Amino acid sequence: MPDRSLANDPGDAAVLVLSGPRLADGRTVDVRLSGGRIEAVGTPGSLSAPPGQPAPGARGTGQAARLDLTGYLLLPSPAEPHAHHESALTDAPRPPGAWEVPPPLAGAPRPPGPGGAPPDASPARLRRRITEAALVQLGHGATVQRSHVRIGDVHGLAGLEAALAAGRALRGLAELTTVAVPRLLTGRAGADGRALLAEAAQRGAGAVGGAPDLDPDPAGFLDAVLRVAEAHGSAVDLHTDADDPARLARLTSAVAAFPSRVTVGPCTGLSRLPPDAAARAADQLAAADVTVCLLPQGRCGLLCPGGLAGARSGPPAGPPGLAALPSAQVPAGPVGAGPAGSGPAGSGLVGGGLVSGGLVGPAGGGGEAAPPVRLLTAAGVRVAAGSGTLRDAANPVGRGDPLEAAYLLASLGGLDPHDAYQAVSAGARAALGRPEVRIEAGFPAELLAVRGESVAGALSLAYSRLVIHRGRIVARTSAVREYGGALASGPGRTGRGRAGQALPRQATGEFT
């Protein structure tokens, strides 16, 4: 779908030079993009268009369009490995106090849609909702997205068809892939599900999956998924809470020799296992060569009792709970790698709770447990992080922002900000089978520019963003913060006293 709103943007040029951004390693550079790839990286002011190559929309024949990114940090763009666009933006407004239902009364029903009606599942509305959700995440920076779509029951393949249509409409702006998610696959009740799963793979679903633990025969469910994936050359993406060591052992054993990529998640149940059982589970996941996709922003509606319907009738998603292992037992290491050193002993005590690389909650408290990310990375498990839900019944405040997922991994999960960002960029792209992105010549031009000077600063205050997909600008968010009141004039200030004072703007760098 052509991007008419950016039709005159420098990003439409055949060659685009990004002038003056800072890289994560601290260098300030110019970056030249051409043909959907990074053509060159050089010192500021050193790059222009190749001779004789006109750039549409640029000033001067043979000159590249230049975009001044002074004050921005340039990063490989994030990806979204685990979204639920089909149910996005469906949670109904609720009155004050509805968030404060105590646990004994948590069965009070939630309205699943406006006026208590189910969300509109008509094909047109589904396509619109999926497209809108994908654009929200594109605006955050996710140029590649994978959405889990339910199949079967009364709607058949309607959700998948809507997602495939949305993906075609978004071509050129973002890449949207799908996971076909059946409810049941075993016994007589699962016959339709088995047929639909095979049909979904044939029609273009990028991966097949579902939740084996919710089927009466989890092993049979997994076997059916793997048979379809092998027959069609599909990737596999499974939902599991990983709270049952025996079931997880059977799952890892079954997928260990599977030829296609296998992703599992969100695996929050690992945090509720005893330390030795959690360590064994992490070793099994590493040996099976699977990727674990974490959801730091909240639970996934598919794993609520009764699926998304259960999410609507259950309590609002609570804060992440306690990860079970003290950090002194878990060496810290980069995402996707083995041990790289130990965290400081005693650093696991936070407000009476423990940190084990998962998120933090009261010791032994309720809420939803978060996966022990440092335990997984120490065992050598490949880790990615996704956003999960976007304002649906499972998480009515879900934002679908990869940088927020990285922020949570860094702020509460004990990861270095660079490693946290790797989980939503390189780790997520690898889980989706997409090529690596580095800001070096020859790599894909999938980039995110955020106002800031460091990765930590970007995860903290990444309001202004510019998103580049296949070498062209596809989304831009500009934030301007102005301050009122009396500010004295001074060097570099625009203040003129109380009356008629020009306000200093954060976006101009007047305030840092």
Structure commentary:
With 512 residues, the protein is an alpha/beta fold. Helices cover 25% and strands 18% of the residues. The protein has helices at residues 123-140, 158-169, 191-203, 218-232, 245-255, 275-287, 307-313, 373-378, 402-411, 417-424, 426-431, 455-461; strands spanning 15-22, 28-34, 37-42, 65-68, 72-76, 79-83, 144-150, 175-181, 207-210, 235-240, 262-266, 291-294, 349-350, 353-354, 382-385, 447-451, 465-469, 472-477. Strands 6-7-8-9-10-11-12-15 form an eight-stranded parallel β-sheet. A four-stranded mixed β-sheet has the order 3-2-1-4, with no helix packed on it. A four-stranded antiparallel β-sheet has the order 5-16-17-18. It is globular, with a radius of gyration of 24 Å. The model is unreliable at 1-9, 54-63, 101-111, 305-367 and 507-512 (pLDDT under 50).
Helix content: 10-25%
Order of helices and strands: EEEEEEHEHEHEHEHEHEHEEHEHHHEHEE
Q: How large a portion of the residues is in β-strands, by DSSP E?
A: 15-25%
The general outline is: globular
DSSP summary, beta strand count: 18
* SS-derived structural category: alpha/beta
- Tally of separate helices: 12
Instruction: From the alpha carbons, calculate the radius of gyration and give it in angstroms.
Output: 24 Å
Give the rounded overall mean pLDDT.
79
Stretches where pLDDT is under 50 for at least 5 consecutive residues are 1-9, 54-63, 101-111, 305-367, 507-512
Distance between the termini: 38 Å
Order of the strands making up the biggest sheet? 6-7-8-9-10-11-12-15
